[in-house]
Amino acid sequence: MTRRQRSERGSSLVESLILGILLLLPVSFMVVEFGEIQRAAIGVSAASREAGRAFVTSRTTGEAESRARKAAGSVIAGHHLDSSRATVRIAGELKRGSEVRVEVAYRTPEVPVPLLGSIPGLTLQSAHVEIVDRHRSIEMR
Fold this sequence. Notes:
Low-confidence stretches: none
Distance between the termini: 94 Å
Number of strands: 5
Radius of gyration: 25 Å
Order of helices and strands: HHHEEEEE
Structural class: alpha+beta
Number of helices: 3
Number of domains: 1
Largest sheet: 3 strands, antiparallel
Mean pLDDT: 87
């Protein structure tokens, strides 16, 4: 073997190891973050569904919106999300046979990614429509 061949021996292993670490770190970090985004999406979907159910099962019109907002906040917190980043919009009224639409939006925080910068926050949205039962009594307070 010549002197040049001996000095480069094993260099491909070192180069592959360095390149592998440089690629593995951001990719593994992004996989974890995509899991967090999926968790937030599931939480937002569940929050809109539960808020809709809480609204239409309320006894009075006065308590319907507060129950819906409380239910959405509880579900968001139950999915370990920051409830201050969530907004809840409710359209409709508590009348027999009417539709109530609940929209929940959640803004994810910006995520720093090593060696790549950061991923900007996303806004996740979910809407759920519930129909107030036609055969139930509603107190108009």
